[in-house]
Design a protein that fits this description.
The protein is α+β, with helices and mostly antiparallel strands and 126 residues long. The chain has helices spanning 9-22, 27-38, 66-75, 79-92; strands spanning 2-7, 40-49, 55-63. A three-stranded antiparallel β-sheet has the order 1-3-2. A hairpin with a 5-residue loop joins strand 2 (40-49) and strand 3 (55-63). Helix 1 runs antiparallel to helix 4 (79-92). The radius of gyration is 16 Å and the shape is globular. The chain starts with a strand and ends in a 34-residue tail after the last helix.
Length: 126
């Protein structure tokens, strides 16, 4: 699942600090346990800068069922998940799993280099 949303200039630094906290102990261990519990196997986050000091957040989630993972996060009572959801709500004013625009986009083009044995791996969702 690929998610994207607007990041204003005044949200960027607090968001960077929030994400940095995810890689600091003990949050890192809690984050990893949360993602395993939700069935998320990969999560990548980018900030794509735009003119005027603003940008777009782009998040890639890989899971067997990404929408179920986000719903699980929204329904979770685990302290870390509550902290994470609260932080996102404070920063951006929305709950990821409850946003009406959270959906898979349409893959229009992709390229993958062949593996060492010369076989092309299929892309998910294509």
């Amino acid at each position: 699942m690929l998610l994207a949303w607007h990041v204003s200039a005044d949200q960027e630094e607090p968001w960077r600090r929030f994400l940095q906290e995810l890689s600091d102990t003990p949050r890192e261990e809690e984050y990893e346990a949360s993602r395993r519990r939700l069935g998320i196997s990969a999560e990548c986050v980018w900030l794509v800068p735009k003119m005027g000091g603003e940008g777009m957040a782009v998040v890639y989630l890989e899971a067997e069922d990404p929408e179920l993972a986000l719903c699980g996060l929204a329904a979770s009572e685990v302290p870390f998940d509550l902290w994470y959801s609260s932080g996102m709500r404070k920063l951006f004013g929305f709950e990821l799993a409850r946003s009406p625009w959270v959906a898979e986009g349409e893959l229009l083009f992709a390229w993958l280099e062949a593996s060492a044995n010369g076989e092309q791996e299929p892309l998910r969702g294509s």
